[in-house]
Amino acid sequence: MLSGQTNPCYSSLSRAVAKNRSRCASQEGVLKRVVTLGEIVVEIMAEEKGCGFREPVTLRGPFPSGAPAIFIDQVGRLGQPCGLIASVGDDDFGWVNIDRLRTDGVDVSAVRIDPDLATGSAFVRYRESGERDFVFNIRHSAAGQIDLTAPARALLAECGHFHMMGSSLFSSRVIAIAKEAVEMVRSRGGSISFDPNIRKEMLNPEMREALGWMLRHCDIFLPSGAELTLLTESEDEGAAVEELLGMGVGCVVAKQGAEGSTYFDRNGRLKMPGFAVTETDPTGAGDCFGATFITCHARAMPPKQCLRYANASGARAVCQRGPMEGASTFEDLDAFIATSAGNAP
User: How far apart are CA 12 and CA 282, in angstroms?
Assistant: First the structure.
């Protein structure tokens, strides 16, 4: 069991999430539990644009972060039962994440508190082009001590859908644990989604092999941009999609930023345009998109509706500075869609 007090700043939001979950459950019966596994970090962002951190710069943060944490926080905000398997240090950086996730409806019983290692961190700086440079401390932080503890196995035993992020496959230890989790969920009839979420600072041969394994074992593949062809022999979009579907992937959901997204399955393709917004910070937008698509898919919404909500979620996310700060409830998304000149109903 975890101890500690929830940040009172989140109390009203927590009530809203609980209300949303109650409403959805009463309308749709028992909701499928979504679980993910991976790094929790704090993100500290440079105020000035530039290439790297070789001179003193003004920093802003810490923000709760980590791709799996952002993903599952957005799932929780949408009122879907969900949980995270992770590890943090017994420090302020760890607790700021736990408080945020717990308040937003995430089951944090499988978040291990490591008494000896610090919570992972990511320092990020933006270039003029919009590209980002990261300095990570993940592999040798508490994040590297993820384990399938008794609470983690209990969470997986209740899991209807398991999501994996490529950024989490940063060590042999975590790769082995992630593969075991996938096999546990699949053996019980659960579904798997995979977002490659590649970071050039982390990619190595071991991670590339693990990415290929995850791809071959997933039902839903969620690449961004060039990631669509990263793990295929073909460099052509259409041929790459055919190759992916031929591997057994049920559907491919291509995230295309401001252009929107495209859904592919054996029945064809569906393109959904994006929403026009002024971008403040792209961090976490793809994770919010993926979380929203998976939540809608878990509720058996048709692909068009899943894409519309996911596009809206990603668009709202880029309007706020900070990885989790733009996460949405369904009420937020409905209001945004209703007032935005974006996708047609």
Answer: 26
Could you tell me if 308 and 260 are in contact, meaning their C-beta atoms sit under 8 angstroms apart? Answer: no
Q: How confident is the model at residue 230 (pLDDT cuts 50, 70, 90)?
A: confident
3-class DSSP assignment, residue 26:
helix
**pLDDT band at residue 20 under the 50/70/90 scheme:** low
> pLDDT, tens digit, for every residue of 22-34?
444 434 446 899 9
What distance in Å separates the CA atoms of residue 273 and residue 259, rounded to the nearest whole number? 6
Please, which residues have CB within 8 angstroms of residue 198's CB and are 6 or more apart in sequence?
Answer: 166, 167, 211, 227, 230
Q: Are 237 and 271 in contact (CB under 8 A)?
A: no
Separation of alpha carbons 174 and 217, rounded Å: 17
Tell me the helices (H) and strands (E) count for the chain, helix number first: 11, 13
**Structural domains of the chain in order of their starting residue, each with its CATH number:** 20-38+66-113+148-338 (3.40.1190.20)
Radius of gyration over every alpha carbon of the chain, rounded to an integer in angstroms: 19
Question: pTM to 2 decimals?
Answer: 0.88
